[in-house]
Amino acid sequence: MKARVTVTLKPGVLDPQGRAIHHALEGLGFAGVTGVRQGKVIELDLADGTSVATIEDMARKLLANTVIETFRVETL
Amino acid sequence: MKTAVIVFPGSNCDRDLAVALRDTTGQAPAMVWHRDTELPDGLDLIALPGGFSYGDYLRSGAMSARSPVMRAVIEAAGRGVAVLGVCNGFQVLTEAGLLPGALMRNAGLDFVCRDVALTVANSQTSFTSHFDANEQIRVPVAHHDGNFTADADELDRLEGEGRVVFRYAEDVNGSARDIAGIVNAQGNVLGLMPHPERVIEAAHGGTDGRRLFEGLVAALG
Fold first, then answer.
1. Digitized pLDDT (tens) for each residue of chain B, 221 residues in all
2. Residues 44..103 of B with a Cβ closer than 8 Å to A: which?
3. Which of B59, B104, B109 sits opposite A20 (nearest CB)?
4. Element at A54 (helix H, strand E)
5. Vertex A16, ends A14 and A18: CA angle to 5°?
6. In angstroms, what separates the C-alpha of A27 from chain B's closest C-alpha?
7. Is B182 left (phi over 0), alpha (psi -120 to 50) or beta?
8. How far is the alpha carbon of B83 from chain A, nearest alpha carbon, in Å?
9. Where are chain A's structural domains?
10. Are B119 and B166 spatial neighbours (Cβ–Cβ below 8 Å)?
11. Which B-chain residues 133-172 have CB contacts (< 8 A) with chain A?
């Protein structure tokens, strides 16, 4: 089985990289972008039957830094 | 005084830190590889060096914080052994949960590499016993991810408990409340982004960093 973990900054945490991307999009002439947040996607190949709880445990212990980030787990 | 420097793959200030410790303690530190599971007996200080351990993969310090040796470091810190994390070492300490908060990409996105002015916000720790309160010192920084972040409650707690030890006296990286270095609640774990080991003799252009190590020697014997 596969799972996808999407890690994003918590709301309210300043994202300097997202802001730079936002400025670059404006520089390319894309109007109407009101905000950009950068995150990361981690794809896992897993033994069949791995529980969502185990994947969430992986996210809490390593994949995300829960001081500044939140995560979302999807099994594929 | 018995010291150790933890060496991670990608550490690059480990030898500078070793020289600073050798010169100020009179004894060469043990160099401990990150895969080791035990530390030498009787350590007074464990130092985590700067660098780009694991190429900053995932997040700066994230992989190193899960290295086998860090279990021993966390255990030693719990027993009261002094732990000093410089730059990447500070990032490792936050990722390992020994210090609160996180170090994010610098606000200006630039890698900042220059001497900066710091204020000694707490001169009562074992790391700062040779500094005066509110004294201004100069120590170089060299980092991309030094933007200290924590939620407002955590920042208030750090300030209220006197755990902000060094503050930037100029704009450097966007750190919350200009925080450059903090200690844990017990006061035996210090993390800071500036590099005291790079200013230990006059030929380096300053000796303010040497005073941190000499203060440690005086405090820890």
1. 999 999 999 999 999 999 999 999 999 999 999 999 999 999 999 999 999 999 999 999 999 999 999 999 999 999 999 999 999 999 999 999 999 999 999 998 899 999 999 999 999 999 999 999 999 999 999 999 999 999 999 999 999 999 999 999 999 999 999 999 999 999 999 999 999 999 999 999 999 999 999 999 999 97
2. 58-59, 62, 66, 94-95, 100-102
3. B109
4. helix A52-58
5. 95
6. 17
7. beta
8. 21
9. 2-75
10. yes
11. 147, 149-150
Contacts of B107 in chain A (CB under 8 A): 14, 16
Yes or no: is domain A2-75 CATH 3.30.1280.10?
A: yes
Residue type, B19: V
Token readout for B67 is: 């290295």
How close, in Å, is residue B160 to chain A by CA atoms? 20
Which class is domain B3-220? alpha beta
CA-CA distances (angstroms) from residue B78 to A42, B92, B117?
A: 33, 16, 32
Joined tokens for residue B160: 């209220």
- Complete DSSP assignment for B64-130: HHTSHHHHHHHHHHHTT-EEEEETHHHHHHHHTTSS-SEEESPTT-SPEEEEEEEEES---STTSTT
Is the pTM value of this prediction over 0.80? Answer: yes
Q: Which chain A residues have a beta carbon less than 8 Å from that of B108?
A: 16
ipTM of the predicted structure?
0.86
